[in-house]
Amino acid sequence: MNRKYRKCIIAANWKMNKTPTEAKEFAKQFKLIAPKGRWCDIIVCAPAITIPAAVRAFKETRVTVGGQNVYWKQSGAYTGEISTDMLVDAGAECVIIGHSERRSVEETDYSVNLKTAAAIKAGLTPIICVGESLQQRDLGVAFDIISTQVKMAVAGLTKPQMRKVIFAYEPLWAIGTGVNATPEQAEEICEHIRATIRKAFDARVARAISILYGGSMNPSNAAELLAMPDVDGGLIGGAALDPEKFVNIIKAANQPSAKE
Ligand code: PGA
């Protein structure tokens, strides 16, 4: 990571885990062991129904709470969807958009674009997930897939709006598998994401954007992944369900090797 130009961000993606009661318990344990230092921003993306409880539970900590999905329409007959206003009113400050687990059911590059624009308009920070499947990697088209996902997600945004965006590179083959990308693989694609942004916007915008890595990040591999120059943080699933593991990843972001 490069702290001169951008923020280090350690974000939990709780997925469909943690009831409001469990979130409260997590926060209680987290507070006992959380480091005092401020070397990274900490985010917890909770299930929609858990957001208000998580916001309350993490009050007086440095943790900000986010959602895991949002709809782009403001209100209306969209059964089961959640609007940006609802997230904001519940206390969320950011939202994951385009996670591969959503792309596998309904999300497209186009809906990711609509959701990103809606989130920014509402003052929510979008955490846009991109990533290739194993087949795409084996066929040698990972770079093309990633640049299309990146360009589609942020098409139409202005440069000031782009400064609010966070990207997360999450290779599908690394999510929940216990097989993380090597630091070199993660760097190569995170660098490519930045280069794509540079081309679509400019060098200043590209330099300022935090790009996270996600996919089986844990306390033992976090420091070496975070040591790569274009990896500015992590989006963590499984390991973020346990307060101690989550805290150890936050601590790993402060290792000397992760600092440059
Ligand atoms: P994982 O999930 O850390 O369990 O691999 C990451 C994610 O899907 O965001």
Strand-helix topology:
Blueprint: E1 9-13, H1 20-33, E2 41-45, H2 51-57, E3 63-67, H3 84-90, E4 94-97, H4 100-103, H5 109-121, E5 125-130, H6 134-138, H7 142-154, H8 159-162, E6 166-169, H9 183-200, H10 203-208, E7 211-214, H11 222-226, E8 233-236, H12 243-252
Parallel strand pairs: 1-2, 1-8, 2-3, 3-4, 4-5, 5-6, 6-7, 7-8
Helix pairs in contact: 1-2, 5-7, 7-9
The chain binds 2-phosphoglycolic acid.
Residues 13, 170, 175-176, 214-217, 235-239 line the site of 2-phosphoglycolic acid.
Features:
260 residues; TIM Barrel; 8-stranded parallel β-barrel; binds 2-phosphoglycolic acid; 41% helix
What would your notes on this structure say?
Helix content is 41%, strand content 14%. By secondary structure, it is of the alpha/beta class. It has one domain (9-30, 40-56, 63-71, 80-252): Aldolase class I (TIM Barrel). Strands 1-2-3-4-5-6-7-8 form an eight-stranded parallel β-barrel, surrounded by five helices. Helix 1 (20-33) packs parallel to helix 2 and helix 7 packs across helix 9 (183-200). The N and C termini lie close together (6 Å).
